[in-house]
Each structure stands twice: as C-alpha cells, then as structure tokens.
UniProtKB/TrEMBL annotation:
Alphabetic keyword roster: NADP, Oxidoreductase
Pathway terms, separated by semicolons: Carbohydrate biosynthesis; dTDP-L-rhamnose biosynthesis
The protein's name: dTDP-4-dehydrorhamnose reductase
Keyword Transcription annotated: no
Role noted for this protein: Catalyzes the reduction of dTDP-6-deoxy-L-lyxo-4-hexulose to yield dTDP-L-rhamnose.
Protein family (similarity comment): Belongs to the dTDP-4-dehydrorhamnose reductase family.
Class in the EC hierarchy, top level: oxidoreductase
Organism, as annotated: Youngiibacter multivorans
C-alpha cells in the first residue's frame, strides 16, 4: 500500500502521517490495509499542486493507491486580496491531483470546508444542501470540490471545520497563548460552528478511504458552539488565569465575511462507516491532555 499526502507539513498532514506510523488513534485502530503502508509526504515546498506537469510526474513516479489532499491556501482574509493564489491552490491544485489520481487509478481524499455554504440559518448543513459560498476562500474551495467530482471517479470529499491539532497553528493554541500573555480576551459570540479535533478527523478519513463509499462527507466534532464558548472552555481546560468576554463580529471587521452559522451534519458518515466523532468538549479535553505530554 502506497499513500501520498499533500500538505504534509500542515496540522492535518503531519498528524495523519504520525497516525499512519503508529497504526492507531484515540478512537481506535486504523484499517489493517494501511498498517505498514509506505507514506510519501509532500509539502508546498516539495510539490506545487497548481503545476499539473509536476503533479503528474510525482504521482506517476509513486503510483500511490491513495492520495490524501490536505494542501490548501487557508488564509481566509489573504484569499480576498490574492484571488489568483486562492484559485491556483484550492481549485487548480485539486483538479491536478484528481487528474493524476484518475490516470493512476488511485483513490483521492480531498479535504474541504464549511465555508462552501452561505453561513446563515439555524439548522446544521447536510451534504445535500445547496452550497453558496460568501468568500473567495469558500468559492475557491467549492471550485476544487467540483474539479474533484469532474476529474476523479474514485473520490471522497471531506468537509470539516474549526480544525485544531497537535501540530501547526490553530485557534486553540492562539487562545492559550493570548490568555497567558494578556489575561483578558474578547471573542466573537455571534458565529457558531463545530470545533473538530484533527485526531478524530484522521480516524474517519482512513475509515472512509478503506471503502468504496465514494462521495461527499461532513466530518466535524459533535455539537456546536460559538467561538466565545470554545475560547472559554479552552481557558478553563488549560487552567489559565484569564477572562473571556463576548463581543460581536461587527466589533472586529475583517476583509472576508465569516459565516454566522456553519454547523455541519455528519449524515453521510452515519449512514456509511459510522459517525464516531466525539462531542467537541470531550475531544478538546483529550487534546489538552495530549498537548501537555508533547
């Protein structure tokens, strides 16, 4: 078994690589077919996914059984000012990997986002709900999804949100650092979504990739909260002496529009391999324990 991971130095790619080496996760063992797999990790420095000829050359040389594309330009505000880069990486990059996967008969797992939806409403978005991205980031990621559907017959599109893990930067680490340094934080309370532990996401990616249940999936932590709720629990679990005050999005204007409501429903997981995503509070506590041991 050969597995190619793009975005291998990011928080998802790094933890996924570590899990494949270990053969297990906090939620259970990985599929037997992936144990002892040869893992080929490529960062953005190693491979420009927007270069079709380079992607074809790498994939043809390795001939992977599985490609996991976690490469993305995720700077939401940066996407607004550098649209070309957003679409090169998020749309063309996905297309190129899909083309190469189809040419080598590889399965492709493509990671996407809650930003493909409108960000309004009061009920979690299911996989079949209409997409309506409101930012360049969301539009570029949706274009990537469409390219994957068009060019690769054996694909899994996995949408996730509010991702945090042991490696790289994320909201949890930012809040802990700010809490220690400043003691008083202000966090928006009018944006709701699903915090997702990378560990849980990796477990489900590998469960899906070991099947032929191709299609679009949502994979987020169970339950929803606001960024303010999330930050408060981070500070509490970390035992940091700091206060967290709620504020509105209007008080912190940003170049890109943020979804006010982007909770996802993991319906397709439930009806195929099973939804074992932990309640977001439990997953966060588990992360804190693991992070302290690093």
């Amino acid at each position: 078994m050969k597995i190619l991971i793009t975005g291998a130095k990011g928080q998802l790619g790094t933890q996924l690589t570590e899990i494949l080496k270990a053969g297990t996760t906090e939620l259970g063992a990985i599929p037997e077919s992936f144990i002892y797999a040869d893992v080929f990790g490529y960062s953005s420095k190693d491979l420009d996914v927007s270069d079709l000829s380079a992607v074809r050359a790498v994939v043809a040389g390795i001939k992977p059984d599985l490609i996991i594309n976690s490469a993305a330009y995720t700077n939401v505000d940066g996407c607004e000012t550098d649209r070309d880069r957003a679409f090169r990486v998020n749309a063309l990059g996905a297309r190129n990997l899909a083309i190469a996967a189809e040419e080598t008969d590889a399965r492709l797992v493509h990671i996407s986002t809650d930003y493909v939806f409108s960000g309004t409403g009061s009920e979690p978005f299911a996989e079949y709900d209409l997409t309506d991205p409101q930012s360049i980031y969301g539009k570029s990621k949706l274009a990537g999804e469409e390219n994957v559907k068009t060019f690769c017959s054996r694909h899994f599109i996995v949408r996730t949100s509010w991702l945090y893990g042991l490696y790289g930067g994320n909201f949890v680490k930012t809040i802990m650092k700010a809490g220690k340094e400043r003691g008083a934080l202000q966090v928006v309370n009018d944006q709701k979504g699903n915090p997702t532990n990378v560990e849980d996401l990796c477990y489900h990616i590998l469960r899906l990739a070991d099947t032929e249940e191709y299609g679009v999936y949502h994979c987020t932590g169970s339950g929803e909260c606001s960024w303010y709720d999330f930050a408060k629990l981070i500070i509490e679990y970390a035992g940091i002496d700091a206060t967290v005050a709620p504020v509105t999005t209007d008080q912190f204007p940003r170049p890109a529009r943020r979804p006010s409501y982007s909770s996802l429903d993991n319906m397709m997981l439930r009806v195929t391999v099973g939804d074992h995503m932990r309640p977001w509070q439990d997953a966060l506590r588990s992360f804190m324990t693991a992070f302290e041991k690093m």
